[in-house]
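Please produce the structure of this protein holding adenosine-5'-triphosphate.
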Amino acid sequence: MFRALLARWRSSLRLFQPAKVHAHRAKISVTQVAHRYGNKVVALQDVNLNIRSGEFVCLLGPSGCGKSTLLYALAGHVVPTGGTVSIDGKPIHGPGPDRLLMFQEAALFPWMTVLGNLKFALAARGVPRAEREPRAREFIHRVQLSGFEDTLPHQLSGGMKMRASLARALAVDSAVLLMDEPFGSLDAQTRVHMQELLQNIWLRTSKTVVFVTHDVHEALMLGTRVVLMAPRPGRIVKDLEVHLPMPRSLEERNLNEMARYLRMLMRRVEGPEGALTPPRPIPEDQVGLRH
Ligand SMILES: Nc1ncnc2c1ncn2[C@@H]1O[C@H](COP(=O)(O)OP(=O)(O)OP(=O)(O)O)[C@@H](O)[C@H]1O
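Below is the modeled complex.
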């Protein structure tokens, strides 16, 4: 019984591979990044991460492990107190049009219609006037909001607002999309629908996406890579490529086995022992298989 269980664990882990991305080919390169807030909290320590163009990387981890701080450092909204973040080999010193940050709140202008919100974002990005409306309408269509172009945000449901926000993020066409738990406030059904929508669009556009979540299933449904972080200090403890075909299903056995593995790692890093150990990666063969 134990042997059979062990064999199943091992075969499911084969679908997980430690990520190997060379810095010189990376779209995003994070080198020795550290961040200490004014209150002395060490939000990030010794963070190294290279992300290839077109990858969908999920930053996963318990509350307070520095996921958002790392995402904001990629966006240029947080200037790390140590280390470097580079895009296409060039160190960044602030926000730029090559990156777009999307939050949990839809953050639409309440006095503008859905179409107006998109056109405004396109204007702010310097898109010529004649191109704004057709492009805005195309992306409203892609997120299945056709018919709601002239609707004000307060007349939309939470899921619809988030779809409008996603349409706006995609329409401005930044090479890198940075998403901070964008579906965290949605009900379970709407959340799954949004995940499918995002994945469909990502499969067509091959944007580089960095997506923060503390939901293991969400990370596995979406990510080509899952980067697990631990708190106190915030650091990366695992970096795994997920070799499962897309679209994925929550019913898939392999996905559920991986979810169990990741949940077990999460429990370890959340626990007092994991939280107190110095930053070091957890060796693949010492994690998961003993339980
Ligand atoms: N502006 C700030 N000033 C001081 N400390 C901060 C600030 N923002 C975050 N922190 C602290 O830095 C650490 C990392 O926070 P961060 O928000 O990056 O984690 P997180 O993994 O995104 O958490 P969550 O999942 O709860 O959003 C936490 O201990 C948090 O309290």
